[in-house]
Sequence to fold (286 residues):
Amino acid sequence: MAMHRVSGLRLEADIPLPELPRASALRADCQFQLLPPRRRAAVPPAWLHRWRRDDGGVLVSLGRAGRDYLVRFTGLADFLISREADLVRCRARPGISPATVRHLLLDQVIPMVLAHRGRLALHASAAITGDGALAFAGKAGWGKSTICASLAHAGGSPLADDCLVIGGRHDSELVSDYSEKRRITSRRSDIRRRSPVPLRAIYVLSPPRRRRAIRIARIEPREAVGRLLAHTHRLDLTDRSRLVAELDALSRLAARVPVFELAFPRDLARLAALRAAVLRHAGGLP
Fold:
């Protein structure tokens, strides 16, 4: 098994993870094991939550199976996560490629593991610009990666994609060390920054709607906590103590870093104008 590092987590895996840097640590915080396929779960799961497509179909199910948490990606794979989030086991459906398993592990499951282990992990992307690190929070398909890719192509550096881990000094810095995505092209050294980066601003993307204008509006800290909570990675949605700790961390973050709503037309022809508007806004922050 090889040891890797991901957002401060020492991950030991029995499959190759070329997206992650290797680590020299002797002891892992979390182990990953790929198990052989099996038709039925050994323990019937008790489902806690389901995420659905617009047509009502189930994309992801989260529940408990015995002492483990179970994350099921419909038609793809089941991931069993131990109560302490120190062991992750995967049973992929027959025919599912190793690349798909790695994608689900790194982009969906590991953020849940990080959150369960006490890290503040936002479903967001970020890029470093001349005015500092800018983060963009929103649901899948809302344009986070597209905006960051545009900033990168204009001279910025992508910092993270889909999972943003907050920590460092004053709990308002971004901890990178996360897996790079093919849709954001950059030098590997840009993605894998070792040192935390101060966060300049957070932009919460509005839901895709028909609109012509680009609008950026300040969200007051108290409201920002709730808006950001909707974009956090969580494993146990019923754990009140973890929710309280997460709200406290978000409150500290919103008190130190300005949060804005970003509404814009989903039109690639307007991408340059959107990038210019964001950079102009960030450049004018006090």
